[in-house]
Write a structure and sequence with these properties.
The chain is of the alpha/beta class. The protein contains nine helices and twelve strands. The protein starts with a strand and ends with a helix. Bound molecules: adenosine-5'-diphosphate and magnesium ion. This is Amino acid ABC transporter ATP-binding protein.
C-alpha cells in the first residue's frame, strides 16, 4: 500500500533555529493522526512544509507517492514550476485556525472559486457539489450568506467544506477549533469526526485531547522539532512512554 503522506528526514530552519529536526513520518491512507505538543514545537511548520506553504531546507515530503515541490532534472533536484506546484497543492487540503474565508464573497462563492479555477469545473457543476458539501456540514441554508453573518463555528464548517470541494487526497488541520468560543467547538469536531469515519486521511494538530482519544488512530507528541512519541491514541494519552509526553499531558489535562 502506498502511504498517503511521507516525510523523509524533513528539516526546516529559520536562520540558525532548526524548527524541524529530521522528521520521519508515514501516514497510511484513511489514517487519522493527531499531533499534540507545546507551543513552538514545530507542529504548524510540519503541516506547512507538507503542503509546501514553507519550503523544506532538507528532506522530502511525498503525498500519494509523489514528491511535493521538487523534481529531478539531469540528476539535480530543482523546484517545481508554479503550475505544477499548484496542481500538487490542490491534493493537500488545509484548514487553519483562522478560517481564512474570502469576506467579500458569499459562502457559495467561497466554495466554487477554486474548483472552477483549478479543477476546471463549470459553475453549474461546482455549485451543485458545493450545495451537497454545505448540506454535509449542516449549512444547507447558508449558501447566500456572507462570512461575517456566520458564527465562528459556522465559518469554520464553511472553510472545511471549501477544502473538501477540491477533493484533496489528504486533509491537514491546524488547530481548527482554537479560535472558537467553547460552545462552538463541538459542531466543528462533529464534522471532523464524520470525515474521519468516512475514511479521509487526516493530520490534525489539536489541543482537544478528547477528540484525539476518540477519533485518532495515532497520536504524535512533538517537542522542539522532534517527534518524541508516536503510538495508538490510548497508549500515548493514557500511558505515555516518554517523560516529556507525560509532563506535557499533566500540564494540559
Ligand atoms: P507550533 O505550531 O508547534 O506552535 P510553529 O511550527 O508555529 O510551532 O513554530 C515552531 C518554531 O518556529 C517557533 O519557535 C517559531 O517561533 C518558529 N517560527 C515559525 N515560523 C517562523 C517564521 N516564519 N520565521 C521565524 N521563525 C518562525
Ligand atoms: Mg501552531
Amino acid at each position: 500500500m502506498t502511504a498517503a503522506i511521507v516525510t523523509d528526514q524533513l528539516v526546516k530552519r529559520y536562520g540558525s533555529h532548526e524548527v524541524l529536526r529530521r522528521i520521519d513520518l508515514e501516514v497510511l491512507p484513511g489514517q487519522v493522526v493527531c499531533v499534540i505538543g507545546p507551543s513552538g514545537s514545530g507542529k504548524s511548520t510540519l503541516l506547512r512544509c507538507i503542503n509546501h506553504l514553507e519550503q523544506p531546507d532538507d528532506g522530502t515530503v511525498s503525498v500519494d507517492g509523489e514528491v511535493i515541490g521538487v523534481t529531478h532534472r539531469r540528476g539535480r533536484t530543482v523546484p517545481l514550476g508554479a503550475a505544477e506546484l499548484r496542481r500538487q497543492r490542490a491534493e493537500i487540503g488545509m484548514v487553519f485556525q483562522s478560517f481564512n474565508l474570502f469576506p467579500h464573497m458569499t459562502v457559495l462563492h467561497n466554495l466554487v472559486l477554486a474548483p472552477m479555477k483549478v479543477r476546471g469545473q463549470s459553475r453549474a457543476e461546482a455549485e451543485r457539489r458545493a450545495r451537497v458539501l454545505l448540506g454535509q456540514v449542516g449549512l444547507a441554508d447558508y449558501a447566500g450568506a456572507y462570512p461575517v453573518q456566520l458564527s465562528g463555528g459556522q465559518q469554520q464548517r464553511v472553510a472545511i467544506a471549501r477544502t473538501l470541494a477540491m477533493e484533496p487526497k489528504v486533509l491537514l488541520f491546524d488547530e481548527p477549533t482554537s479560535a472558537l468560543d467553547p460552545e462552538l467547538v463541538g459542531e466543528v469536531l462533529d464534522v471532523m469526526r464524520k470525515l474521519a469515519h468516512a475514511g479521509k486521511t487526516m493530520i490534525v494538530v489539536t489541543h482537544e485531547l478528547g477528540f484525539a482519544r476518540e477519533v485518532a488512530d495515532r497520536v504524535i507528541f512533538m517537542d522542539e522539532g522532534l517527534i518524541v512519541e508516536d503510538g495508538p491514541a490510548d497508549q500515548v494519552l493514557s500511558n505515555p512512554r516518554e517523560k516529556r509526553t507525560a509532563a506535557f499531558l499533566s500540564k494540559v489535562l
